[in-house]
């Protein structure tokens, strides 16, 4: 008499999955279905051939180039200071109308006297330098220059008109081409 337990105990039965069952399984179930012990070769030819979509490449990580600011030089500190009534133009005088040439801007390219033209406005950023999250050095490379392109390249979302309203000393003289 057949012991009856043969089919349950036969290692061959328990190790080889039934292909008709597999045909109705999802790929993840298929991958979890094997009871094959380590070292025993599975009959892979009976598994459904499903092509997995290639994983999407991870988006490039944005590396922050923010620097550590001196204590007391956060954005909040700057906003409070610039609203305090202190002259933030470094004694040049607040103006939204004074027309300034690029040649004049270029003369002010020192940390102790730093002008910059951005989006048509000229700012004396001497007092802002230490508050810049990107650091003083990167700003000083543009000291005395028209820096709109680099400003926008790094952070076009920064509201410079508001942030430096207390530092505006004029507007940049636009150049006209002689035809
Ligand atoms: C004087 C005008 C400028 C102001 C008011 C200003 C303001 C700011 C502010 C608020 C941030 C922080 C941005 C954030 O949290 O997302 C920042 C970061 C930065 N700024 Fe400026 N910026 C000025 C000019 C410039 C210029 C001309 C350059 C490049 C030549 C520059 C380069 C950077 C860089 C590299 C960072 C760090 C960005 C990061 O990796 O998160 N900034 N700036």
UniProtKB/TrEMBL annotation:
Keyword line: Heme, Iron, Metal-binding
SUPFAM superfamilies, sorted: Cytochrome b5-like heme/steroid binding domain (SSF55856)
Keyword Ion transport belongs to the record: no
Residue ranges of every copy of the Cytochrome b5 heme-binding domain listed in the record: 97-173
Keyword Phosphoprotein: no
Region (Disordered): 29-64
Gene Ontology molecular function terms on file: cytochrome-b5 reductase activity, acting on NAD(P)H; heme binding; metal ion binding
Protein family membership: Belongs to the cytochrome b5 family.
The name this protein goes by in its record: Cytochrome b5 reductase 4
Organism listed in the record: Hypsibius exemplaris
